[in-house]
Amino acid sequence: MATQQMRTPTPQGVADAAAKIAELLPNTPLIERAVNGTPVWFKAESLQPVGAFKIRGAWHRLTDLSAEERARGVVGVSSGNHAQGVAWAAKRLGIAATIVMPVDAPQTKIAATRGYGAKVVLYDRPGGENRDAVAQALVDQSGATLVHAYGDPWVIEGQGTTGIEIAAQMAARGLDGPTRIVCPCGGGGLIAGLAIACPDAEIVPVEPEGWDDVRLSLEAGSIVPVPDMKFPTQCDALQTPATWPINFTILKARVARGYAVTAAEVRAAQRWAFANLHLVVEPGGAAALAAVLAGKVPVDGRTAVILSGGNTDPADFAKVLASND
Q: How many Å separate Cα 152 from the centre of its chain?
């Protein structure tokens, strides 16, 4: 962890990550649709090979490891999407990966992570076990490199490449770039990266109610952890206990406020994305869209909304589509 804290994510780091990712992955679609008559731009990160934007930060981090570091392997912490990103990148690069995941993570995400060849170590999130402590113990035992889901400068830079793509795709359609980027938020890796990558855009984090610690932290001016780790939410991808100083330092300087959305608003957003964008979006991935559809975040013709992931259990998604709350 000390090595990570010594390095600060930079615009040049985001640019370097973007160049590496452009060689590996095609741009995800930027889809224009109207919301209450106003054009909005939707970035479909749910269509990444691992079903989420997390592949960006994982690839940037692992490709910057030295030969000696690669030989010692990596340890990740994740609710599921970062887990798959790290496992995917590790398999492609021939690096051993161990991922610390919550015992109550969706089985589809646990199975997919193992399917990429990673070893999964489960921890008791409902019981309050500290995932970072579990991960650090594994790092201490093996000498592996910790690839944190959001508190890592390389990961932050990699996630910021999403903003680079949005700006380029809007420019290709004759627009100056996003005035506002509305983004699902867990620990703050993506919004911190966007804040670096898109200095002229307003960055708007959206979290599920009960897990809106970044919103509370911005209001307080200091890091506030999640008040109740047992608070129920379907947004498993956004269940992080607290942001890290490396993220919050960036957010304090660039982000005015955050927003929280209800479970019903998230389900409505999932249904809207399926009907209007023909996309399967997981609950956490639909949080930003939920805030826009609920009228909590204003939009203009250059507002971008990130659909951050699409890894949801089929049965759960079917229930969402069948509901009308």
A: 13
165-214 pLDDT per residue, tens: 999 999 999 999 999 999 999 999 999 999 999 999 999 999 999 999 99
Mean pLDDT of the chain: 95
What is the strand order of the sheet 38-44 is part of? 30-35, 38-44, 303-307, 180-184, 202-208, 259-261
Partners of 206 in the β-ladder: 184, 259
DSSP state of 52: B
| Positions marked catalytic | 54, 79
Q: Is 230 exposed, middle or buried (0-12, 13-18, 19+ CB in 10 A)?
A: exposed
Read off the pLDDT of residues 79-100 as tens digits, 9 standing for 90 and up.
889 999 999 999 999 999 999 9
Retrieve residue 228's tokens. Answer: 């109740």
pLDDT digits (tens, 9 = 90+) for 267-312: 999 999 999 999 999 999 999 999 999 999 999 999 999 999 999 9
Strands 259-261 and 202-208: parallel
The overall pTM is greater than 0.70: yes
Q: Residue 35 corresponds to which tokens in the numbers above?
A: 């919301």
**Cβ distance 131 to 100 under 8 Å?**
yes
Tokens at 220, concatenated: 């307080």
CA dist., res. 279 & res. 48, Å (int): 12
String of b and e for 135-165 (b: at least 16 CB within 10 Å)? bbebbeeeebbbbbbbbbbbbbbbbbbbbbb
Q: How far apart are CA 193 and CA 14, in angstroms?
A: 8
